[in-house]
Amino acid sequence: NGIDIFNHGINLYLAEGESTPVEIDRSEYSITTSLGNLIQIPLKYQLQNLSKGTYSLILDCYDVNGKFRSIGIKFDVSTKFDIQNFANYPNPVKTKTFNPVNEGRTRFTYVLTDEADKVTLKIYTVSGRLVKTFKDLPTSVGYHEYPRTDKGWDCRDKDGFFLANGVYFYRIIAKRGGKTVEKTEKMAIIK
What we know:
Blueprint (H helix, E strand, L loop, with lengths): L10 E6 L5 E2 L5 E3 L11 E3 L7 E10 L5 E10 L5 E7 L3 E2 L12 E6 L5 E8 L4 E5 L7 E5 L19 E11 L2 E12 L1
Parallel strand pairs: 8-14
Antiparallel strand pairs: 1-2, 1-5, 3-4, 5-6, 7-9, 9-12, 10-11, 10-13, 13-14
């Protein structure tokens, strides 16, 4: 249906642990709107100076029919160098859809708890054959989506061929000083 940004707006709240959520001032986050798309509205908020612990970020809004929605995510602030919330979307990746713009495309998301020197992403077949490597991913603290293009990765291998239907493993490697952190997940490509 879409999000009603004109009559009700969007409100963002932050809570530490089980405490009562505190509304974040509207001037501290940005919302990018397009009259052509009220289904997906990018919201950017840079979390700063949070102490170690568990937090909840809550977004309240109304859809265009006046129905209230509240969505929340929990996350941990860590003092150690780590990769969190590593995933791809959509998963499974569908190569035959009714939306040719995003057909057969996916994005990878991750959170870095501290700045990295280098971040690399590798895609493997289930037999362990490397089919694609992405170098020079974003290294700053916080949430990242890759690739940063509007469309995402087109599921082509290093030689430019589309990957076949099946299960693949993807691994992110972040390096900082002498420390290396790796996370591995799996995705499916289907027709």
